[in-house]
Amino acid sequence: MKLEGTVALVTGANRGLGKALVAALVEAGAARVYAAARDTEKLSVADPRVVPVPLDITRPDQIADAARRAGDVTLLINNAGALSSYNLLASSQVDLEADFRTNVHGTLAVIKAFLPVLERATGGATVVNVLSLTSLASFPALGGYSASKAAAYSVTQALRPELRARRIELLAVLPGPIDTDMVKALQMPKSSPADAARGVLAGIARGEEEIFPDPMAQQMGALWMGSPKEFERAFASF
Ligand SMILES: NC(=O)c1ccc[n+]([C@@H]2O[C@H](COP(=O)([O-])OP(=O)(O)OC[C@H]3O[C@@H](n4cnc5c(N)ncnc54)[C@H](OP(=O)(O)O)[C@@H]3O)[C@@H](O)[C@H]2O)c1
């Protein structure tokens, strides 16, 4: 799809990858970018094309309100995500449910609420779900989070034909580690949010169903395509 002139909405836009996606969309010539965040005071809105929208993706009232405010969106980027649960045996039910509530149910609820908006787009529309390499095989140290991201990938696959029938493309982003608050405790090479955001937009422009936006994701994505079992073993050994 063409990014120039697009009207996008990015969830979780106040920090990390979401903030970098807003900046990259502006740089790519988007006509308007709705920057959605739980606390809009935390948004940096340096460009007049950036429009703040209050949105907690676990709150049905706020989701409905966001779909009303941003009624001209043609590119919906579901970036907001939570990492509350770690090793499965050590994680509490509360933390597991928190990851599923945001990463699975929240993402699905946003897509459903924006369907009428996206269907109105004359040239077709695109939804992008920011998932993770852990959607493809579990990273056991993040077993609960991985399970939620795998479920979100399944949701993405299930919705893809349903949305296509409504002229809406659904793309999945499967990043490796990015240098954001979410993984600040993990000691491993990480991409910068700006580089990862540029990789995401390049994949959207090419219309890739699976976008591997950073070098580690590209390397691991090739391994996954060649041998899912080897990919699983590689992740389990980290
Ligand atoms: N960092 C990585 O290595 C990595 C790798 C693969 C995939 N990802 C995915 O990339 C996406 C962005 O993560 P990040 O690395 O930028 O993490 P981050 O720095 O922790 O940012 C997470 C963002 O999601 C928002 N958020 C969380 N729960 C929300 C909710 N219920 N409603 C609305 N917004 C909510 C946060 O808002 P608040 O500021 O209000 O908390 C924040 O803006 C996530 O989907 C994550 O799973 C990250």
Keywords:
238 residues, 7-stranded parallel sheet, 7 helices, binds NADP nicotinamide-adenine-dinucleotide phosphate, 7 strands, alpha/beta
Structural notes for this entry:
Strand 1, helix 1 (16-27) and strand 2 form a beta-alpha-beta unit. A 7-stranded parallel sheet has the order 3-2-1-4-5-6-7, with helices on both faces. It has 238 residues and is of the alpha/beta class. It is globular. Helix 1 crosses helix 5 (193-206), helix 2 (60-69) runs parallel beside helix 3 (93-120) and helix 3 packs parallel to helix 4. It has helices at residues 16-27, 60-69, 93-120, 143-164, 193-206, 215-226, 228-236, and strands at residues 7-10, 32-37, 50-54, 75-78, 125-130, 168-173, 210-211. The chain contains 7 helices and 7 strands, in the order βαββαβαβαβαβαα. Residues 11-12, 14-18, 38-39, 55-58, 79-82, 102, 106, 130, 132, 175, 177-178, 180-183 line the site of NADP nicotinamide-adenine-dinucleotide phosphate.
